[in-house]
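mind reviewing both lines:
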Amino acid sequence: QVHVVESGGGLVQPGDSLRLYCAASERTFNQYNVGWFRRTPGKEREFLAAISWNGGSKSYADSVKGRFTISRNGAKNTVYLQMNSLKSEDTAVYYCAADQQSAYSRRWYINEDAYDTWGQGTQVTVSS
């Protein structure tokens, strides 16, 4: 089982961009489907995006489609979440999660129960 670590969070202004990183030290990370979620106080964890183990399939929540982009670099054992045109309502703790499966479906991976490995999260604050 891999251990994932998120980074790249911080304080930005509305309209800014930010890139989040989900990294693992294990080479087997390339066999994992990976998702990004976020949580704000008082709310359930929200699905944002997911990517298949080979990068061939990607899924997005309607709330971020067109603004957020998920990608991965197998050589660097890293999955990215590029966030553009950030809004104050994007303020949250962002988590990446991973699941080792050769199959991928959006219907499954929009659910947090699909993942068996979670990072500790990285805080993103969007404020002027």
